[in-house]
Amino acid sequence: MTSLSGGSDDGGSPAEPQPLVCARCGTRAEGPQPTWICSVENGTRHYFCDACSRENLRAIEGRLDSAWW
Length: 69
What we know:
Blueprint: E1 37-41, E2 44-48, H1 50-55, H2 57-62
Antiparallel strand pairs: 1-2
């Protein structure tokens, strides 16, 4: 049996997670659980590295609902 991705069926084990890539600068995460920001825009998750998050903190805060304040 083959999976939808064209590979062989591996018995239902989860796929190996892909490393995160910063949506702004393209930096790749080095660890399995980096301390990055995740933004959901139009139903799609976007991840931002620590450096880009710090540089754009005001813009990030400006998009929060007023209930956060």
